[in-house]
Design a protein that fits this description.
The structure is a single chain. The protein is of the alpha+beta class and about 250 residues long. The protein folds into two domains: about 80 residues, Gyrase A, domain 2; about 150 residues, Cyclophilin-like (Cyclophilin), CATH 2.40.100.10. Helix content is about 25%, strand content about 30%. It has six helices and 14 strands. Strands 5, 6, 7, 9, 10, 12, 13 and 14 form an eight-stranded mixed sheet that branches. The chain has a four-stranded antiparallel sheet with strand order 1-2-4-3. A hairpin with a 3-residue loop joins strand 3 and strand 4. Helix 1 packs across helix 3. It starts with a strand and ends in a 5-residue tail after the last strand.
Length: about 250
Amino acid sequence: MAEYLEPKIMCAGDSAVVIEFGDSIDMKINARVQQLRRYIENSHLYGIVELVPTYRSLAIYFDPLAVGDIGLFFEKLKSMAQRTKGEVSKGGLVIVIPVCYGGEFGPDMENVASHTGISEEEIIRRHTAPDYYCYMLGFTPGFSYLGGMDESLATPRLKEPRKVIPAGSVGIAGKQTGIYPIDSPGGWQLIGRTPLRLFDPQGEQPFLIDAGMWVRFKGIGKEEYDEIASEVASRTYKPEILQKSGDVA
């Protein structure tokens, strides 16, 4: 694994800067990204417009007129970036995502079972066993890139992507698993669906999952799915969010 000893700072136009910590998907690198994000959020630096974390970097969008002295602004960012450490904590917020697996909601469950040689019941057990770390959001609004899937479930993407995948669909593509937050095209193998709304532009918090959080899938039946879907539609459903404890690794 390659990793920069010093944060790499790059301009991205006249109103953004990208600070990069490495060149691979790695929890320690992402820990530095999230730590810098927290430093900036707590620093109350004037002129910050938006922070966008990725697997290995943080994009910082700012208002050049509000920032004033750009040189001083960059020095402050550089100082905070240099203070970050790749300390991976197993703690943090965990959001529980109820999923109805198989059947009409998981049309590719049979494909995954055939490819892996694992029964549908065992696929569900293994898929719901770990807590998944959200490295970043991207692709579509609220699409979470999750790490931590059991590699025995790895299955190639569909040869012919679907034109429309329903929002809430849970799928597998290679060694990754994820949730489609909105109706969109896609080629992931669909194994289930959640009734939760991952992207709600009208809500107080548009995104249900954020980078740096953990996701725990929970298998549910069709009846419970319908009940939760009804509560989500009426905006009375409260997602289960837990505090995951753990030491720094």
